[in-house]
Amino acid sequence: MRELVLTSKFRRAYRRLAKRDRALQRRIDDVLSQMQADVFSPALGTHKLGGALAGLWACSCGYDCRLVFALQVDEESGHQIILLLDIGTHDEVY
């Protein structure tokens, strides 16, 4: 199981999306659960980003909702950490 770490930017964006659309909030929560189990599940559509976001990853939370994150390793425990950086529409996060 991987640990999810939420940045303040992610928290703000999540609250904004959740306030607008409760169904989307449930989908995002499901995606976060799937990410903890298997971040590279085909259902998530996880892919590397390039350009200014090189080194980061993204996955889909629905038709026009993307989640941007980084994969890191906790040096003390050796466990993988998923650092959640941003969430929003394709144009908002890229």
Please supply descriptive tags for the structure shown above.
94 residues, alpha+beta, YaeB-like fold, 5 strands, 32% strand
Description:
It is a single chain. The protein has 94 residues and is α+β, with helices and mostly antiparallel strands. It has one domain (3-93): YaeB-like fold (2-Layer Sandwich), CATH 3.30.2310. The protein contains three helices and five strands. The chain has helices spanning 8-20, 22-37, 90-93; strands at residues 3-6, 47-48, 57-62, 65-73, 80-88. The chain has a five-stranded mixed beta sheet with strand order 1-5-4-3-2. Strand 3 (57-62) and strand 4 (65-73) form a beta hairpin. Helix 1 packs across helix 2 (22-37). The mean pLDDT is 94.
Give the structure's gist in a few sentences.
By secondary structure, the protein is α+β, with helices and mostly antiparallel strands. It has helices spanning 8-20, 22-37, 90-93; strands at residues 3-6, 47-48, 57-62, 65-73, 80-88.
Q: Could you give the topology of this structure?
A:
Layout: E1 3-6, H1 8-20, H2 22-37, E2 47-48, E3 57-62, E4 65-73, E5 80-88, H3 90-93
Parallel strand pairs: 1-5
Antiparallel strand pairs: 2-3, 3-4, 4-5
Helix pairs in contact: 1-2
